[in-house]
Amino acid sequence: MTDTTRNPGNGGETHQQAGDDTPVLTTNHGVPVSDNQNSLKSGARGPTLLEDFVLREKIFHFDHERIPERIVHARGSGAHGVFEATDDISDLSSAAVFTKGEKTEVFVRFSTVAGGAGSVDTPRDVRGFAVKFYTREGNWDLVGNNIPVFFIQDAIKFPDLVHAVKMEADRGYPQAGSAHDTFWDWASLMPETTHMLMWAMSDRTLPRSLRMMEGFGVHTFRLVNDAGKSSFVKFHWKPKLGLQSTIWDEALKLQAADNDYHRRDLFEAIDTGAFPEWELGIQVFDQEFAEAQPYDVLDATKLIPEEDVPVRIIGKLTLNRNVDNFFAETEQVAFLPTNIVPGIDFSNDPLLQGRLFSYLDTQKSRLGTTNFHQIPINTPRCPFGNFQRDGLMQTMVPKGRANYEPNSLADHGEEGGPRESKAGFATTNAATGPDEQGDKLRVRAGTFADHYSQARLFYKSQTENEQAHIASSFVFELSKVGLLDQVPPRMLANLRNVDEDLAQRVADGLGLDLPEKAEAAKEPVDMPASDALSIHKNMKDTLEGRAIGILIADGTDADELDALIEAIEAADAKAVIVAPKVGGARLSDGDMFKADGQLAGSPSQIFDAVAILLSEEGCAALLKEAAAVDFVMNAFGHLKAIGATDAAQPLLDKAGVEDDEGVTGIGDDFIAAAKKRFYAREPGLRTLA
Ligand code: HDD
């Protein structure tokens, strides 16, 4: 039986109480239900009667439980938390949310983009990172992604992007993936996608955990101070746990092992008090800086290298409470880039400008009413009021006659309602560049023409392994373009503008000749490499937030197991015991030790490192168990540390494990190795493009 708390303001619980504390089951209209097992029939074996209002109401409600899923970002996971401003930026912004020491309630929803609500958590895809701040000056929504740039420069292209990437219109597949004809057909015809494609083909789209990825506001916004002076700003979220990604083979196998891998990871972390944290950072710059750059700061396909404008940390986000109800909160939350507060403002980025239009509109079709702001997850926590009235599902009950403004009802002793305030949101009045105002033009500014320099910058800033992963992803995705022969060469022609070596590697991987270079609207330039763009250079040498799988079987040494669990927990990681039977294994001391997961259902891809804690007896039994061989083989193939007892060696041999730095005993050397991935192993394991 669930609580049915109603909208704040209408007050109270809706249950009738029985004599004890257990609430009584009622209809939606409060009538107690005496039998929830049997419908009303004409005779014990006769037809059901129309009169059965209990049955009809229950089925009627059930039939209407679903609402349209989001056209993009349909699959998501949400959590509550708090944002604390940690630095004084009152010289830059008057927003209350940035007052040093101010704590603001937040709700965050992470999502994949292309898949439906029931799709898997680990496809190669961009992740949404949407934050709703319930500030004391109204809701501010920072609706960003885990990648700092976007596919397109102008919102008018968004429906084409989404149609191309989602399942193909006639056949209804593939679900949740870009590796298909229509996406690459469209992308290869749109050179402005090139920079974002580099990010999408990198390990950025394979995050290990939602807790281990960055977030970005993407667009250039404005900060506005008390005096009305405005500065440009880009927003960044930096995860406390550093960056971690899986590799492609692992992500694919994760889809089979656990569809809900990220959702479960987030929920369990919060549930066990390991609250995920991010720092909020800002890059602030002025018009003069903007005009001096070789790219346009209003172009959402461009980033501002952190080496040019360092990220200043101004706050901390902590997610500390899971939702009580997925539908009521995570599904019904409505993010709106138009939710902005005094002290922050938009820029003229044409992608952002289009978003300002789209999100309000979509909530009406998803949530069915213009009163969606009254759904508790969307309601401002500060007082709010205006003269907008009525409409479907109006749950507030405004009192009095004042439903228009101005009015003088207060002069007559009546309630007059709210009034305007000079301290309210005021749009910045600032000249924003030479091309932006004046004649009505359906054009793209000339300053948006360079589609390749930053794609090159991104590629150049990666480690060798990361570059190989990018090349391999292009090969994988373009190999899935089945029917349209013209597409891979067209993509290769674009890639030649990014990096000749990359283009050659992809061509070799596809078994194609390199075509002529595509003509660039503007010749790319070389920019200095930026370490901030690499995942490998931003990983943390820590076990915090990670999970170590320990494979045990009958005969496993009890003391060794205790010591290992202790060492893992001392390093702030989670030890997860895997055994052939979930009931556990009988250890060397004769006791049964319960497992957290059964071997076949807990493959090594769900762990960051594995320990194979077997006796000779246990190892002999597992040598005949394909799931055990796979457990070890995949851990090795996914470049993870493997700690093993001497007795487990035959299993390691059978799994093809070769000695390297990541293959250790089960002592301190394992704990140190478990913090890393062993990328040097990879070229010996699979052909990388
Ligand atoms: Fe969008 C949802 C992020 C461009 C139209 N978008 C949505 C969500 C995120 C983003 C994180 C999910 C919010 C949630 O959890 O409910 N979108 C972005 C970013 C963009 C971007 C970072 C570029 C920088 N989006 C964009 C454009 C348009 C849209 C250009 C349309 C012109 N986006 C939508 C939408 C969605 C949405 C159709 C689907 C559901 C929703 O809004 O509430 O309106």
UniProtKB/TrEMBL annotation:
The keyword Transferase does not apply. SMART domains: Catalase. InterPro entries: Catalase (IPR018028), Catalase_AS (IPR024708), Catalase_clade2 (IPR024712), Catalase_clade2_helical (IPR043156), Catalase_core (IPR011614), Catalase_haem_BS (IPR002226), Catalase_immune_responsive (IPR010582), Catalase_large_C (IPR041399). Its cofactor is heme. It catalyses: 2 H2O2 = O2 + 2 H2O. The keyword Iron applies. Residues 26-413 form the Catalase core domain. Residues 411-422 have a biased composition (Basic and acidic residues). Gene3D superfamilies: 1.20.1370.20, 3.40.50.880, Catalase core domain. CDD domains: GATase1_catalase. One of its GO terms (molecular function) is catalase activity. Its EC number is 1.11.1.6. Keywords: Heme, Hydrogen peroxide, Iron, Metal-binding, Oxidoreductase, Peroxidase. PROSITE patterns: CATALASE_1, CATALASE_2, CATALASE_3. It is an enzyme of class 1 (oxidoreductase). Residues 1-43, 401-438 are annotated as: Disordered. Residues 1-41 have a biased composition (Polar residues). It comes from the Bacteria. Decomposes hydrogen peroxide into water and oxygen; serves to protect cells from the toxic effects of hydrogen peroxide. Belongs to the catalase family. HPII subfamily. This is Catalase. It comes from Sphingomonas hylomeconis. The lineage of its organism: Bacteria, Pseudomonadati, Pseudomonadota, Alphaproteobacteria, Sphingomonadales.
